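Entry:
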Amino acid sequence: MSDLRKINRADAIEVLWPIRGPYTADSFVTASIAIEHLWRYLTHLTLRSESRQMDSPADVCIAIGNLANSSSSASQVFSQFNQWADRIKDQSELAHDEDLPRHLISGVVAVGESALRSAASQYEVAAQQLYKAAAVLGHLYLDHDERGRPS
């Protein structure tokens, strides 16, 4: 971690959800809640494009690049959810809360698998487009003199 007197929010994420685990049902669900919250946070922060937090082209490009990486990871997660659905679809103890017959449950899982494959594909396309945006916008900067005035 960086300066121990100040909480580094990115370090806090690593402390709460270390990449190497442990992996639990609770950490799995709470990680998805945290991701949802962070997307909502960014939605509010970027609500106005003239926001002071978005003054630096470099910072915006760093964020776009990070979100490109995140989108690529999301694509992988959805592919892995699809593998999970494929693995459980034939389990004899699999049931549906509307008491569907066994042959219909397989159809429900197939619809879910299709949606997950589509989500994975769309997130990978989003990642590629975000990488492209970061690459072209990454050349921008604000030309100021040493006192912060436009030159």
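Residues 1-54 form one domain.
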